[in-house]
């Protein structure tokens, strides 16, 4: 799990460096954060579809094991959350949909929290290793929620109407 945090932060720093070098798409920290989270989601979402024999990354079976027993159709839930992560990743890279995608992803991350709590407390092994402790899972999920909200807050928001006079405030935040 620390590998994902490193991926997120290293991508954020690299994209922001590109922004400092003149790539307009990454001219702000929040825009770079949205793209960094998008890359992270491509990596994590891919695990939702990986067959059990693969050993280089978590698999679909690893994620199914994390689903609490009270949830119906655990395999379908894993596929569905993988699709939602991919849609969220696509939404984050497009300025027009970034706000909606960031808010939807923050909600998704909150809804996925019970699976992380269950996996930690039940000792569900992950990728053949020991269960990730709760003290790691909760802050990591909090980081993803924070970055998703940061990206949403910084977004253009042209698809979401704002009260008159707030466009200048929104532009100043970027």
Describe this structure in words.
- The chain is an all-alpha fold.
- It has one domain (2-173).
- 70% of the residues lie in helices and 0% in strands.
- The protein contains 7 helices and no strands.
- The protein has helices at residues 2-20, 29-47, 60-66, 74-93, 95-122, 134-154, 167-173.
- Helix 1 packs antiparallel against helix 2, helix 3 crosses helix 4 (74-93) and helix 5 (95-122) runs antiparallel to helix 6.
- The radius of gyration is 17 Å and the shape is globular.
- The model has no long low-confidence stretch (mean pLDDT 88).
The oligomerization state is single chain
How many helix segments? 7
Report helical residue fraction: 55-70%
The secondary structure category is mainly alpha
**Can you summarize the main beta sheet?**
none
How far apart are the termini? Answer: 30 Å
Q: Spans of 5+ residues with little confidence (pLDDT < 50)?
A: none
State which percent range the strand residues make up.
Answer: under 5%
Q: What is the radius of gyration computed over CA atoms, rounded to a whole number of angstroms? A: 17 Å
Which of globular, elongated, flat, extended, rod-shaped describes the shape? Answer: globular
Transmembrane segments: 76-96, 103-122
Organism: Nonomuraea montanisoli
Keywords: Membrane, Transmembrane, Transmembrane helix
Protein name: DoxX family membrane protein
């Amino acid at each position: 799990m620390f590998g994902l945090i490193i991926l997120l932060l290293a991508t954020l720093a690299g994209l922001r460096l590109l922004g400092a070098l003149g790539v307009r798409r990454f001219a702000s920290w929040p825009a770079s954060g949205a793209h960094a989270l998008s890359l992270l989601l491509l990596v994590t979402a891919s695990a939702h579809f990986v067959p059990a024999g693969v050993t280089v990354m978590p698999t679909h079976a690893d994620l199914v094991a994390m689903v609490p027993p009270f949830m119906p159709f655990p395999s379908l839930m894993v596929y569905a959350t993988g699709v939602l992560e991919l849609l969220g990743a696509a939404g984050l890279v497009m300025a027009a949909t970034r706000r909606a995608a960031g808010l939807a992803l923050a909600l998704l991350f909150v809804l996925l929290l019970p699976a992380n709590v269950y996996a930690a407390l039940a000792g569900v092994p992950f990728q053949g290793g020991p269960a990730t402790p709760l003290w790691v899972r909760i802050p990591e999920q909090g980081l993803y929620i924070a970055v998703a909200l940061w990206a949403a807050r910084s977004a253009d928001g042209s698809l979401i109407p704002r009260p008159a006079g707030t466009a200048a405030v929104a532009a100043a935040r970027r």
